[in-house]
Amino acid sequence: MTPKPLLARIVVAASAVAAPLWAQTPLFTDGGAFGGSKVFSEGMNPLGNPARTSQAPQGWYFSFLDGDQRAQDNKSILGDTASADPVAASAALDRLNGAPWALRTRAYGIQNIKDSASLCLTREQSNGMLAHPDLDPTHLGTAGLAGNTSTLDGRRTTVDRLSLAGGGPVQQGLNLGAQLRIERWAMGRQVAQFGSPGPGFGDPESAQMTFTATSPHTLGYGLDFGLDAELAPGVRVGATLDQLNSRTLWDVHLKPQVRAGLQLDFGQSTKLSLEADLNAVEKMPFPVKQKAAGASLRFALSPSAVLLVGAEQRRIADVATTRGGVTLQLRLASMLIALGFQAGQDRPMKGATLMVN
After folding, report:
1. Where are the alpha helices (DSSP H) in 57-133?
2. Which residues contact 302 (CB under 8 A, 6 or more apart)?
């Protein structure tokens, strides 16, 4: 068996048994959604491992990403809830319980990396939706559907984030890093009731995924830490600690989360990364505990081309969805261009990064 098919099988197997994942935004096409890693990041993502900042080429970075991440068949099930047949609509609500969430994200970023330090400004806009189906048997079917109390909890969030990170070698084989995030958040909420007039249930696009109103802004900060260490030639371990300072945003309680990972080298050009969160915490925009894991491969195709391929699994409201992602980086003497894509439903997530030095 050749090495590359063997590595591909390892990634598939690891993703199948991985813990549930609700990944951070893959800013600068650096993250699990685009086939990368958080613990062993490329050093470009301000939501990655700050110990890896020195891994990124120095220069000015510009980034854009846009797309959806949904539970399997969420969009089509929402449409089926509008069926004129009470039995079919009731069946759709039951299926919605197994596919209740959706998230649409658009983000922009500009960053300067120099001498193992990063200064980054990003803006993220997202619309999230979480269904709460009423599955009481007396509220379903021909006789009870009129009294069904199912809801769609739609949330709009925007965050402007200024990040200052620094990290790199502190001794042979050991990298340490820390990051301070200053964040300005706003959130709006729009709840749709099953059977009520207006958009919501039965709308495949769903008004919860498109509205833009938000409440007054709130200002806060976050502290993150990271490390990676080489245990032996070609064997590395790493960890990140996010949100060291606990805080509450509306009804979401943000608490510290630890993620650990293992990276193995296969020859000079291939790296396999496996990682998982060690504890579950709530994350914006919903007050639901989430946990993460992923597997990825990094191929150095040539001195100037790098391919990242990976799989991830996401869970929210106890429902997991598996996705695969890929990113191609072209690293030139004074420029880096990266294009990332994650397979998915509706509007697949895509991103681009440009670095000039």
Report:
1. 74-80, 86-96
2. none
Query: Residue 44 phi/psi, 5° resolution?
Result: -100, -25
From the list 292, 349, 356, 337, the residue with the least C-alpha distance to 124 is 349
Say how many C-beta atoms besides its own lie within 10 A of residue 63's C-beta.
25
Residue 84: inside a domain: yes
Q: Which domain holds residue 326?
A: 21-224+296-356
Rounded percentage of the chain residues whose pLDDT exceeds 90 = 63
User: Quick one: residue 317, left, alpha or beta (phi over 0 = left, psi -120 to 50 = alpha)?
Assistant: left
In a domain, 72, yes or no: yes
Dist CA 277 CA 259 (whole Å)? 4
Number of domains the chain contains: 1
What pLDDT digit, counting tens, does each position of 133-156 carry?
Answer: 999 999 999 989 999 999 999 999
Spell out where the chain has E strands: 59-70, 101-114, 117-132, 151-171, 174-193, 218-232, 235-242, 247-249, 252-254, 257-266, 270-277, 281-283, 286-290, 293-302, 305-316, 319-331, 335-342, 350-356
The more confident residue out of 111 and 321 is: 111
Residue 80 Rama label (left phi>0; alpha psi -120 to 50; beta): alpha
Closest CA to 109 of 334, 353, 357: 353
Q: What is the mean pLDDT of the chain?
A: 88
Q: Measure the N-to-C terminal CA separation of the chain; round to a whole number of Å.
A: 42
Question: 112 and 61 in contact (C-beta within 8 Å)?
Answer: yes
Cβ proximity of 228 and 252 under 8 Å: no
Confirm whether 346 is domain-assigned: yes
Distances (CA, A) of 152 to 181, 187, 194, 255: 31, 16, 8, 26
Omega before residue 256 within 30° of 0, cis: no
Is 257 domain-assigned? no
Q: Residue 16 belongs to what H/E stretch?
A: helix 3-17
Per-residue b or e along 199-212, where b marks 16 or more CB atoms closer than 10 Å to that residue's CB: bbbbbeebbbbebe
Q: Does the pTM exceed 0.70?
A: yes
